[in-house]
Amino acid sequence: MATNFWSSSHYKRWIVDRATLHQARYYDLQYADSPEHLGFLNIFFANLISKLGKKLQLRQRVIATATVFFRRFYVKNSYCETDPFIVIAACCYVAAKAEEAPVAIRSVVTEARTLFGDEYGIKTFPSDNSKLAEMEFYLVDELECDLTVFHPYRTLVTLCGKEGGVSLPQAEAGEADADDSDGPRYWGTGEGKLELQEGALQMAWYGLPYCPSPQAQDAQAPVRFIINDTYRSELCLLYSPHLIAIAAIYLTLVFHAPTRASIQQPASSAPSHSGSSHHSHSGSPTRRSSRSTTHSQKKQQQPQDVIGFMAGLNVSMTLVATIAQEIISLYALWDRYSEDVHADSARSSFLHKSGSASGGTRRGGVKAGRSASVVSSGTITSGNTPSTQDDSAQNEIVTPMSLVQLLLRMREQRMTDLAHPPSGRPVAVNKMLERTQAAG
Amino acid sequence: MDHNLLVSDPMRLYRAKRDSARKRVTDKYTILGFISSGTYGRVYKAQSKDVDGRIHAIKKFKPDKEGDVVTYTGISQSAIREIALNREITHENVVALKEVILEDKSIYMVFEYAEHDFLQVIHHHSQTLRQSISVAVLKSLTYQLLNGLLYLHDAHIIHRDLKPANILITSSGVVKIGDLGLARLTHQPLMPLVAGDKVVVTIWYRAPELLLGAKHYNKAVDIWAVGCVMAELASLRPIFKGEEAKLDSKKNVPFQKDQLLKIFEILGTPSEREWPKVKDLPEYDGMKRLDHYSNRLQEWCQSRMPNGAQLLKELFAYDPDKRLTAGEALQHRWFREEPLPTRNAFVSLSAERVPPHRRITQDDAPSMMPLGAGGSHVQGQVSQMQATAQAHLSQQLSHSHSNQSGKAGSAASFASVSGGGGPSRKKARLG
């Protein structure tokens, strides 16, 4: 099972189509300000899971699993009829167990209460452990007990080898370590490994553009992860993880300037990047066999056939291009989202790029700025330029606080409508509530 | 519409909706009787109310209690593990999970039913028939066990608790590995295996690297257990029947001197030549202080399983790296010699030699299953549970006693009865 994606519950039961997702958001669409806001909610919830996960010191893979659980839960439920905050906490709690790195229920309750209460003004999160345990019970039921999740990280490591001297930072090592010799790529053909330059693999892992120069790092502190970023959308429900990984690699090849240059001008005239603000390891990517040669030699010898490598993967490149397109669309949307939680709705039209002291805040500001430059930099090739947003929409900046307000509004309206249906036959809801009250 | 209610508990409506849609265990199954119990909960025999009327084993995890009130305290790691793994696997030689039902704060796992298990077969031969298991049966059981294990290992699952009570056999003689409650995925673990469960595998079946405190271990621990099980099938008693040294008050894992001695008495003291890494293990110094023994496995096998001696020797390789893998073991010459292993392990047996059906008890079983829904029953249910739990406890004690004195039949267990045998059969679980 661990190796056979095709016989997994993930593949058999949890890859859904767009129509299903659309149906799943049926009620939410009626109460949301616009369909676009549901996209912002996708980003917002994933960020919340990530934040809570970091407070609980969960590894990236656990956070990713928690996010997939959350998405799966909402294939069957509506935001406006549930409390996403307790669902988020339960997802983190179950994911930690499912990934064999359990955390105490008490710490989940405590951290969630603090995070949701202090930063988002959610005061309803229960202090009682049993309420979270109860939610876990319902969550596991909704997940149909399918708790084993596949992630693109593994494909990335399988395809882009870590043995070539590429080191992933400590925090992510958990995803890359262990016996990869045991885990062949599960969709069949394709030979060898693509050896990406150090910066490039980190870009695929971390997001683009990864910029290691010290000054830039200071200013742009937290790097973003392309694969991690995909969890801010519903891609994990729509596509197999290996396709998402290949799309992330593809985007890296396209966006990573030195790599792109080397693809476009193989070997002969590879430019020197030693002085650029990008990576010092900017030689043309080569097969692992030539690792021992120096950088300058590498540039002249055996340029890696990146295009051939990608073409050799037995996957639908049309599909990969579609996923890449969706990732870019996500970045376009994300561009208009600011994590500055202290901006109230009245001020939310001003983007606080400078940010405040908190990491999340600074990150949000930077993120918006940076992905804007990515999208508008004109480096996107192969016809993947995203459709340009219309100007009026561009100006609205969405903040977590505005989304929290939206959520509460959606739920309240939904409850009101349930209690007073247009048919004039009211309150099936109340009957149900009476029943639960009776049942304790 | 009571908005205050929704503010204080926004998920109330959601739960009401889910609860009303949920099919209950008793809607779908008729409980036929009680099979066994263990630390995790209880197992029942049940018949589907579908037209097929199939028989199942339903494993009910013990509900959590705070005082007398059943409450939610979080699903145990072991239940999550067993559920998650079982949802992904399908193999003829691994017990199939049909469904999981969550209701009334309890988890029910519905498994395919198996009429027998290895422990019961062993008891049947030692107590009733008073003769050894035929080579044909022994070989078929071992082969199918290895076949199921090969599947699990290929899927990167280490079972970690193989023992006769956990290995089931259907009435048509097909082996089914059960109880994945201690099993876990080893593909890309986020934490070392040792960090999760300090002690794995019932002591008699525990591999020497575990006994010597290895921090890293792998699939080879299951292979050792297969060796122990195979030897037990051949001799009708555990081959290494040591006394477990108990955890101290600080839950430190003690040096398992007696168990190691039991192993050394037959396999000899391991040498650094055959197991170079042994000197790096934490308990190596303790091992050095023990008396020295030489290998007499050949002699042990002579009377019990002359032709299987070579396979057993290779399953019992001290060095985990040299121990056979499940795949290699299946390729062993022994399995290609007459009599060949059969898909129905009992095919060569006359009807009276096939072990008897699993015993179920009628009395306390139906009452254990919640009859109605709802909280009003909870209180009654709880007190009933306590009564039956107590009754069961005494029953279990006498059971294990008679087991050891060698008079009773099988301590039949289904899908993991860790409390199946005497106290020493129990595994210690930490964390």
UniProtKB/TrEMBL annotation, chain A:
It is found in: Nucleus. It comes from Dichomitus squalens. Keywords: Activator, Cyclin, Nucleus, Repressor, Transcription, Transcription regulation. CDD domains: CYCLIN_CCNC_rpt1 (cd20513). Residues 357-367 have a biased composition (Gly residues). One of its GO terms (biological process) is regulation of transcription by RNA polymerase II. One of its GO terms (cellular component) is nucleus. Belongs to the cyclin family. Cyclin C subfamily. The lineage of its organism: Eukaryota, Fungi, Dikarya, Basidiomycota, Agaricomycotina. Residues 373-396 have a biased composition (Polar residues). Residues 264-304, 350-396 are annotated as: Disordered. GO terms for molecular function: cyclin-dependent protein serine/threonine kinase regulator activity. Its main location: nucleus. This is Cyclin-like protein. SUPFAM superfamilies: Cyclin-like. Pfam families: Cyclin_N (PF00134). Residues 47-141 form the Cyclin-like domain. SMART domains: CYCLIN. It comes from the Eukaryota. Residues 266-275, 282-295 have a biased composition (Low complexity).
TrEMBL record, chain B:
GO terms for molecular function: ATP binding; cyclin-dependent protein serine/threonine kinase activity; metal ion binding; RNA polymerase II CTD heptapeptide repeat kinase activity. Keywords: Activator, ATP-binding, Kinase, Magnesium, Metal-binding, Nucleotide-binding, Nucleus, Repressor, Serine/threonine-protein kinase, Transcription, Transcription regulation, Transferase. It comes from the Eukaryota. This is Cyclin-dependent kinase 8. Residues 389-417 have a biased composition (Low complexity). The keyword Transferase applies. It catalyses: [DNA-directed RNA polymerase] + ATP = phospho-[DNA-directed RNA polymerase] + ADP + H(+); L-seryl-[protein] + ATP = O-phospho-L-seryl-[protein] + ADP + H(+); L-threonyl-[protein] + ATP = O-phospho-L-threonyl-[protein] + ADP + H(+). Belongs to the protein kinase superfamily. CMGC Ser/Thr protein kinase family. CDC2/CDKX subfamily. Residues 29-335 form the Protein kinase domain. GO terms for cellular component: mediator complex. Residues 378-388 have a biased composition (Polar residues). Its EC number is 2.7.11.22, 2.7.11.23. The keyword Transcription regulation applies. It comes from Dichomitus squalens. It is found in: Nucleus. Its main location: nucleus. Residues 355-431 are annotated as: Disordered.
